[in-house]
Amino acid sequence: MKKNYLLHVVLLSFFILFSSSVNSQCIPTVGFTGSTGDYINNFTLGSLSNLGSGDDPNDYTLFTQTSSYVQGLGYSYNIQTGSATWPQSVGVWIDYNGNTLFSDPGEFVFVSTAFVTSATTLSGIITIPMTAVPGVHRMRVCAKYNSTLASTESCGITTFGEYEDYNITIVSSTPCTGTPVGGTAVASPTNPCPGVTVNVSLTGSSLSGGLAYQWLRSTTGPGGAWLILAGQTNPTLSILPPPGSTSWYRCVVTCTNTGLKDTALVTSAV
Fold this sequence. Notes:
- By secondary structure, the chain is mainly beta.
- 7% of the residues lie in helices and 36% in strands.
């Protein structure tokens, strides 16, 4: 009886210790807190979207938005700061190996090459390395006022700025079989103003390795002619819609191991 009790205590203690260590990264700090105008207002990566988050006076938030990302695939990001006046350096870290640190090689996945205001949307592709450990991991985004963000500043900066955290899931690149599921193409934002970049992602689609993607656009409606978008072959699409027209987007998802394919349901008009 005593041995069983002691065993339960040991197992419970181990569980608590293990649970508390998962995603227990440092809480980042900034030198001058408050609603100073130095913040990230819009952030998307793949199907993860956090728009209009505003200027948090605490300058740090762990958001609930999440998404899944497959080893070896690239995902579109869009980042926009919130002030038209105060220039920012922006960076992103992902704790790929789950050791609660952002200091390992390759985990500082993006830093802006210039200081930006809200007039600029930063866009590009983040590719998940094959060495990323499957499971839930922490992603951190930072805006730093008027000074280049360094890879060593994942836990704090001495000036104005803001940090955002997200828990994301890395999925193993298991080879696809049979016919993949295309899912639904979802645009963010919808009804954008002219000159605003739109991020289109797939929800409910297959998550595995060996999938090929091809995005298409129609300017005449879901039943109209579809134009292949050259070079747009990632699971997400980051695009500036043609001015003066309405566009619809869809994606053909192909399992390269079988040659079978499925087409995602069309986005609402953008």
